Amino acid sequence: MAAYLSMGEAHRRIGDYLSRVVNAISSSDGAALASLISVSSAPGSTPLSDALAAFPDFPRLAGDRFPHLADLLVPLLRSIHSHSLQRFSDAYSSFEKAASAFLQEFRNWETPWAMEAMHTVALEIRLLAEKADRELATTGKNPDKLQAAGSFLMKVFGALAVKGPKRIGALYVTCQLFKIYFRLGTVNLCRSVIRSIETARNFDFEDFPVKDKVTYMYYTGRLEVFNENFLVADQKLTYALMHCNPQSESNLRRILKFLIPVKLSIGVLPKRTLLERYNLLEYADVVTSLKRGDLRLLRQALDRHEDQFLKSGVYLVLEKLELQVYQRLVKKIHIIQRQKEPAKAHQIKLDVVVKALKWLEIDMDVDEVECIMACLIYKNLIKGYFAHKSKVLVLSKQDPFPKLNGKPV
Amino acid sequence: MDTTNQNAVYYDPQRDVSVPGPTQSVTNSEPHVVQSANSYVPCLTSVQHDYNAAQHPNYYYNYRQAENDSSVQVVVQSPGAAYQPLASFQNSGSYVCPASNTYYNAGTHQMAPGYATSSYYYYHQNNALADGSSVNNHAQSYQSYTPDIAQSSNSLPTSSVHYQQHYNQWPYYYDQSAQTLGGLAVAGSTTSITKAAVVGSDYVHPSDQPPPPGTTSWKTDFDNSASPTAQAPGIQGYQNQYAPKATVAPVFQNQYVNNTAGISTFQNQYASSEYRHSSANYNQLPLSIQADQQNTCHLHGSSSNVSSANHVSENSRAPGQDSVTSNVHMVNKLHIQTNPQIAPGLPIGTPKVDKSNLEADSSSKPAYVCVSMPKNDLKAVAVQGGSEAVMQVTGSFPVSLRTYVERSLARCKDDAQRTAIRRMLKEIITKATADGTLHTKNWDIEPLFTLPEIATGTNMTGTGNDSSPFSFPSSRRSPSRRTKSRWEPVPEEKVANNVEFPKQSAKSNICSSLEPTKRTSNSWHLSKFVPSCQSPLSQFSQRSTKKQRTGGGASLTENGNVSSDSVKEQDLTKYYVSSITIANSPEEKKRREHRSMRFERRQGSSSKSGSSLQDEDATANIYTRRALSLLLNRSNGDGAGCGLAVEDLDWDTLTIKGTCQEIEKEYLRLTKAPNPAEVRPEHVLEKALHMVETSKKNYLYKCDQLKSIRQDLVVQRIQNELTVKVYETHARLAIQSGDVPEYNQCQSQLKRLYRGGIKGCNIEFSAYNLLCVMLHYISKRDLLSSMASLPKEAKKDATVKHALEVRSAVSSGNYVLFFKLYKAAPNLNSCLMDLYVERMRFEAIKCMSKAYRPTVPVRYAAHVLGFVGIDEVREANGADGLEECKKWLRAHGAVLSVDNNGELQIDTKVSSTSLHMPEPENAVSHGDTSLAVNDFLSRAS
């Protein structure tokens, strides 16, 4: 392809591209600039990349034509060139240089006209870093580009999270940082960014763009799930769900993936249609077990989807549903007992519970079941007391099985 | 043998130098010293040898060598010669060392005299170079010190003397070639500044050819002896004069003698005899600088000076160890402090030096190889050198700068610079002639140095060395571009500019010298460097006494000339300054001192235990390899400004191979490059591990031993089954003793090793890891990730299964299951669970007191909470789990009552409000009971 390109044509194309970039900057056209500097979305072969391949002296061309922007343009061209050659690690390195130069310029521009371009840079650097890391990992090298992208984005964040009109773009960069940190497994690094976002008094969170707010709430909600802070997590994920674009089903699904376990843990069960619509059927058995008090089903469901749940980080949340399942089981026993023997309905013999568990093929001795009953009482899932001497669970006559009603166990 | 030994000795200093950044300068100084024997360097080297031989023959390679050398050569004569020069010095009185006087005073005040002397020597050398007048002071100080040092041993000096003589000859020779007598002294100083690389080349020459002056000295015993003999009368006289004082400090005397000799008559003799040698050397030398004999001489001299400084430090250490006097010990300690720092810097420095040499002359490479041979000596020196690090520190600033300058000069072959140096030398000489003034000035300065200040100064110097070594290489290349290396100290360049040296006049002197260099020096040219050095000295002298001003003015002018050349020196100075500033903080100082003291102790023992000629050779090889690899890296780096990043080093070539045969070794955190003589090879480590496994001693001992094994493994980069076994053993022991921090260290290493595919009990340890993460970390993410990373087969393992069950019991609050699992725990799971038992029990009793009504039998609680039925052995021995449970319940606020049947019950309703966690009985204010003195003593006993 490139071989057929004449030098003159290649020269013209490169010059054209360069002048478009420079014009976009000089005319403060952020959108045009953003489209010009997106590297990773380009296909393998574009007119520009062909021209770059045919005209290897492009760095000098850029440097000669626009010496004042050489720091930006030369590495940018290099990055485009490397990317078209599938050399992602090189492409990333060059792009980071270009991005640094751009950030330098960006700091000097008083108005945030280039915010769109800045966001493109933030996105591109993350995407390129991910590609570069994949490439490095396959060649057996240390994939450290995403980490480097993270530290670069922190610089960008520093340039944006200031007083003034540029702050509005800070949340976008924050979300890019979240993505990097979650992928790297260094979520503790999120804390500093969150603090600077949430403690800012001169900028109302609601003033940020909605899409950024949704993303931000999604990630912070996930963080709260890790911390088992279910009430806050519920709040944030619900916010994300409510404000998320209803058209983007995949985003809704992502949010629900975490919101459902959180809701389950505070006693709110989803309808099966919801699970089906968003293809979240891995939670179906969990929901059923909660409804039935079927401990075995819960354990089976956890076992079956263990890897998935562990990866997404909801395993421990779902595991904690066990107590609710026990509660449901005792409640069922209580209902049956009330029908059979209303006078003694509030006295449940431990043997009965043990037997019920045996039917579920769960082998627990009396002591353990007694302990579970004690835990249920201790955690306010059952109102009543346990008489050790007679091994009887004595239920309160009023509301012996209080609902969680949005409170976690 | 003798020659090789000598070479080795020389090399040792180089090695030392090479290890830390500052060491570069030091190494340089060694060779320089040899050449500039006139100057202090030779003295230092000789001193070291003496010490080694006399005190720690077994210990130091150098020592043996020194002995051999002495035996072969006319040691006595050489010392005598050395003494003569000293006498001359005294007469002249005006050597370079005003600073030295001050130092001496300081040394007398607080530090051991030996130490002070060593450091002073260094300074003296520098000073001498800078100002001829200071020489007298040095001599005086030496004399004063000598009595103190006398203990070290007179006999030792003989060997050292020989060396010194040789060195002196060389330096003289060089000096002569370079300049006249007066110029010689200066040259020596300048030479000290010159690069170590040059020195290395010199050394090589000797090894290759007996005649070369530097190395030749060993072989050229005849020549040396001849020259000494010629001088002998003068020397003898000197001895007589100083004999009483110098018994201990023969080395010092020798050094001085050398210096003096260089200055006085010796120069002539040496000049004649040595000149030939030097010329021969030059020819032989790979360096193309033959044309510029003066320059080369300067370079050599500088290198020798630096090396001498190192030697001195080593010597001082050795004496300190040997010497019984408290003073000496003090000195040693001080030295030690400096040593670690220096050591790290040295390796780097040497490579750089080599590089520079290479750059200067392609032929320099062979020289480098030769240098490697001396490494053994250097090593020994390094060991000893710790004590003298302080001296180096003080002197190191100027020395290193000088070395750089000299290098640059050698490369550039700037006649103007040379001329400037010459002028400086002349001025120095004139100053020296005005001895009285110098003396007075020095004395005046003395009051400034209070003892504590001196100590701080030494510390500071030590720190400076540490930082400088790292910084040096990079700075040399291209300070601005060099990539940051983790290993580099925090040398803020800005800091350097701002830093001032209020504490010590000596420091101020140094600083002043540095400052001029900064301004003036763009490059490392020798000429530049020398002037800069001189200028500080001159400034110093001016401050001390305005009378000296005449000389000082001249020096200043020279400085100005020089200054134009050297730019890079600024960086160096900055580094130094920063290091000094860091060192200034009293806590730092204390810590350093402490560490250094420990270090020295250990060194002494290790050196005694494990040095043999073979070992020396091996170490030498290692060093050469290291140096070569560094050098290669350098050359690969190309001048393009890419600094020598740690990551780029070829670690395989740098890896040392231990030679220590002792199975037992106390752990001490390394503060410098590891010494192969103190590192145990793999087969010894295996024995050591076995020893620890079968040892009946307590955990503290085992932990210490295992840590030292781990350290040896790390420094030798051994990563195999043995490594895994060591970490596993340590981790298990730590678990058993509840030492979670240590366990965590091992666990993280094990994780890495397992990931590297090394077999071990990885499943067992993934279970431990699970338990540990679960029981001690709040973050659920860690738990999730460690659960997610469990391999499939691990989940089938009983230990892992158990750990997972424990986790689920904890998360659901199922205390019954928890204690059931506790009873049935495989491997060491129970030990980890132990750490969680108390919390689990308290949760359980809270739960029970809320859930049960009206009472719970204590017997049941004891059963459920694992008080009974867990440790059958103990119960069989009469320990009553029930009683224990009662005690525990009461301690936690549970209310017990006896029911109608006489059964003890927990009154749950009352208890539910009164439960609390008791204050830990053995609580200590710092929160770590393991740090409690009583506990420590009881455990240690």
What this model shows, in words?
Chain B: Residues 739-922 form the PCI domain. Chain B: Residues 203-235, 297-324, 457-517, 535-567, 586-617 are annotated as: Disordered. Chain B: Residues 302-316, 467-477 have a biased composition (Low complexity). Chain B: This is PCI domain-containing protein. The complex is a heterodimer of chains A (409) and B (941). Chain A is mostly helical. Chain A has a domain at 7-208. Chain A has 21 helices and 3 strands. Chain A has helices at residues 7-26, 30-36, 47-54, 58-65, 70-84, 88-108, 115-138, 145-160, 170-184, 190-198, 210-226, 230-243, 249-265, 272-277, 284-292, 295-304, 306-312, 315-319, 322-340, 350-359, 366-378, and strands at 347-349, 384-387, 392-395. Chain A has a 3-stranded antiparallel beta sheet. The longest helix of chain A is centred in the first third of the chain and has 24 residues, at 115-138. The model of chain A has no long low-confidence stretch (mean pLDDT 89). Chain B has 941 residues and is mostly helical. Chain B has a domain at 852-922. Chain B contains 45 helices and 3 strands. In chain B, strand 2 (896-898) and strand 3 form a beta hairpin.
